[in-house]
Amino acid sequence: MALSDINWRIIELETHDAFTNMALDEACCESVASGLSKPTIRFYRWKPSAVSIGYFQSLHDEIAVDECATAGVDIIRRRTGGGAVYHDYEGEITYSVIVPEKMFTRVNAGGAEETLGITESYYEICGWIIKSLARLGIESDFKPINDVVISADVDASSADRVFVGKKISGNAQTRRGGVILQHGTILFTVDVKKMFSLLKVGKEKIADKLIATVEERVTSVSHVKPEVTREALYKALFEGFTDGKTFEVGTWSKEESARAETLANERYKTKDWNEMR
Amino acid sequence: MEYIATTKVSGGKLLRVKAETDGSEPKMIVTSVSLTGDFFMHPEDGVTELEKCLAGMPAKTEVRTYVSKLNDVIHSNGYELIGFSASDIAQTLHDALHPESEY
Fold this sequence. Notes:
Shape of chain B: globular
Radius of gyration of chain A: 19 Å
Helix content of chain B: 25-40%
Strand content of chain B: 25-35%
Distance between the termini of chain B: 22 Å
Radius of gyration of chain B: 13 Å
Largest interface: A-B, 22 and 19 residues
Number of helices of chain B: 3
Largest sheet of chain B: 3 strands, antiparallel
Number of strands of chain B: 5
Structural class of chain A: alpha+beta
Oligomer: heterodimer
Number of helices of chain A: 10
Order of helices and strands of chain A: EHEEHHEEEEEHEEEEHHHHEHH
Order of helices and strands of chain B: EEEEHHEH
C-alpha cells in the first residue's frame, strides 16, 4: 500500500491535560495496531500547560519540579525520545501521526515497495509541517535529526527579523507493535523566560546571555509572521497535513477513550512512570 | 560510589552516563550504569540491555572493549541508536570513571 492509498482519520484540534494527551496517543496506537481504528492524524493543545520529557531523560535532572507545581504546570514523560518541551497552552499546536509501519511505504528505484525508515519518515511527516507553514508564507526545511527550521526570511530588514536556521518545530517518533507514532509541536509563540523557569537550569545560568542564546536558536509563527492568528495556523496545519490524502474527520471510539482514561491513571499520572529515570 | 559524565555528541544529542562502582582501584567494578539524555533509540526498552551489559565490567576497561560489548548487544538485537553511538556511550562512561584521563 502506498502512502497515497491510506484512508486517514483526522481528529480535529482538541484540548486535554498532559496525561490524557499522551494516553490518547497510546490508546490510538493500540487501536490502529489491532486494525480497529484507521491511521490517524490528530491536533491538540495542552491545558494546563505542561512540560514533557523524553523517554530517556531523567525527570529530576531536567525539570524544576517545585517551580512547575507553583506555576500549575503538569509534568509528564513521553513514550518518545528527545528533549524536554514546554507545552504552553497559548504557545503551540501539537500533532500526532499514528500509522502502521507496513502502510508507511514508498516505491524504491527498483520498483519494490519498502517501509520508510525512521529518518525517511521524519522527512515525510515533517514535510507536511513544511507544506503547512508554506501556506502561511513561511519557508522552512527539515533539519535532522528531528527539527523543522526556518529556511528563508520574510523580511530581513533588521537583525530582529532574521530567522533563517531557527527552529520552529520539534518532533519525536517511536515505533512499537508495528505502529509508528510521531508527534511534534509547531511553535506559535515562545516564552523563553517561562520555559527556563520550569526546566532545571541553575538559577545562575538563567542569565540574559543564555536566554539570548535560546532566542537565537528558536522562533515561532508569531515572531516570523505577527499577523498570523492561531486559528490561521491550525487551518494551515489541517490543510498541509491532509493535502493529497484520502481522509475523513472522525472522533475517538468509546474503546479508545476508555483505554486512554485507564492509561492516564495507571501509567501517565504515576510516579513510577514519570520518575522512571 | 557514583560517577557522572555528560557528552554533547557533535551533530547529535546529549548523553549522560551515571555509573555506580564497588571496590577500589585497581579492582573497582562497575555495578550499574544509567544512560539518560535527549537521544533516540529504537526500540526504547533496549536501553536497559545496554545499561545491563556494562554492569560487572572492571572500571579499568578500555573504551574499545566497552564499544565491542555494546555493539554486540546493539547488533544482535537490531537496536537503532539516533543521535549517539556505542562509542559515545563508551567514551562517556570512561570519562565518568576516569575524569583525569585524556584517553
